[in-house]
């Protein structure tokens, strides 16, 4: 029997990188650098990026998300629809933009704009889960994962297919029975409060990986720790759950890790779709995320679209399209 598609469920954002060079500071604010903008490149962010990265491996991918009725939402629908099967409900409000200003590839500041939140899940969104071969929940705290009907459907899938849940501080608690939860170390510390973890990142990630399966009723946990790699632990009946740290490959000195978490979660979900065991899946995901960062991270993702214009803000808080 052929496995169904990898279904990515979550909030899709619009990411915009404005790159250039800083050679001076603002004369009326000496601490403020002046960026001479040279190019602007847009791409899907959040669950949209995770879906694109998963599809690049060759597996069939279906993205269940919500998109706003604005120019950015239209661009996302067109761009994503060319690469994955897209099932999108509506958003209340504007597309969420995350704009990074980069000085020779190094982030200076990020500006967020648009507070759109997902409307209740549509029947098409719920139906899109039914034949999943595996599921990745890419939660970005914009309402998709918090939908009661969608959460109920995801919980019902956990006994049939591997469900990977990549959580967010403002998102929902993972449903019970997930095959793997994949927080970063900061998210894991927050979820495990008031339990104290080790001070150093490596031991802390191992502590968190041991504790999270019980906290979130998951079968396994992988806690990402940046350049250190990821700690993985599989739930068991023993009083103490064993965990191991899978190291990442060294990254270039000026490496941009933006998108590495999405890459890790997508690669892990693809591995579990192919029946990899949890530890082997995490090992493959760490290697894939390391290669992703070495290649330039999310900033190196090229989707063939025309470069976006720099955003111009119009009256009443609205904005012109940025693509």
Care to describe what's here?
This protein is an alpha/beta fold and 323 residues long. The protein has a single domain (6-20, 40-300), classed as 3-Layer(aba) Sandwich (UDP-N-acetylmuramoyl-L-alanine:D-glutamate ligase). Helices cover 28% and strands 29% of the residues. It contains eight helices and 14 strands. A seven-stranded mixed beta sheet has the order 8-5-4-1-9-10-11, with helices on both faces. A four-stranded mixed beta sheet has the order 3-2-6-7. Strands 12-13-14 form a three-stranded antiparallel beta sheet. A hairpin with a 5-residue loop joins strand 12 and strand 13 (230-234). Helix 1 (47-55) crosses helix 7 and helix 7 runs antiparallel to helix 8 (278-294).
Main attributes of the structure:
single chain, 323 residues, alpha/beta, UDP-N-acetylmuramoyl-L-alanine:D-glutamate ligase, 7-stranded mixed beta sheet, 4-stranded mixed beta sheet, 14 strands, 29% strand, globular, disordered C terminus
Average of per-residue pLDDT values: 90
Number of β-strand runs: 14
**Overall domain count:** 1
For the termini, the CA-CA separation is 42 Å
Note poorly predicted spans.
305-323
Q: Which structural category do the helix and sheet elements fall into?
A: alpha/beta
Summarize the structure.
By secondary structure, the protein is α/β, with parallel strands linked by helices.
């Amino acid at each position: 029997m052929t496995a169904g598609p990898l279904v990515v469920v979550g909030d899709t954002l619009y990411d915009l990188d404005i790159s250039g060079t800083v050679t001076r500071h603002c004369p009326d604010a000496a601490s403020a650098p002046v960026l001479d903008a040279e190019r602007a490149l847009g791409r899907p962010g959040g669950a949209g990026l995770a879906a694109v990265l998963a599809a690049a491996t060759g597996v069939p991918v279906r993205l269940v998300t919500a998109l706003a009725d604005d120019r950015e939402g239209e661009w996302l629908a067109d761009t994503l629809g060319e690469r994955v099967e897209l099932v999108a409900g509506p958003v209340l409000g504007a597309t969420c933009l995350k704009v990074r200003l980069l000085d020779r590839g190094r982030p200076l500041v990020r500006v967020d704009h648009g507070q759109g939140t997902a409307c209740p899940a549509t029947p098409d969104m719920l139906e899109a889960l039914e034949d999943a071969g595996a599921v990745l929940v890419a939660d970005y705290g914009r309402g998709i994962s918090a939908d009661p009907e969608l959460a109920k459907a995801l919980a019902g899938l956990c006994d049939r297919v591997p469900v990977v849940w990549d959580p967010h501080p403002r998102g929902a608690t993972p449903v019970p029975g997930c095959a793997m939860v994949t927080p970063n170390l900061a998210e894991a510390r927050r979820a495990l409060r008031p339990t104290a973890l080790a001070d150093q990142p490596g031991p802390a990630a191992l502590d968190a990986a041991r504790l999270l399966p019980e906290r979130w009723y998951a079968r396994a946990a992988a806690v990402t720790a940046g350049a250190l790699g990821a700690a993985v632990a599989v739930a068991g009946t023993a009083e103490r759950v064993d965990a191991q740290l899978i190291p990442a490959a060294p990254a270039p000195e000026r490496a941009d890790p933006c998108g590495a978490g999405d890459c890790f979660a997508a690669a892990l979900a693809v591995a579990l779709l192919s029946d990899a065991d949890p530890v082997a899946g995490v090992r493959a995901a760490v290697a894939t995320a390391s290669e992703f960062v070495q290649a330039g991270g999310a900033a190196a993702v090229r989707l063939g679209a025309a470069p976006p214009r720099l955003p111009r803000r119009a009256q009443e808080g609205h904005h012109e399209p940025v693509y």
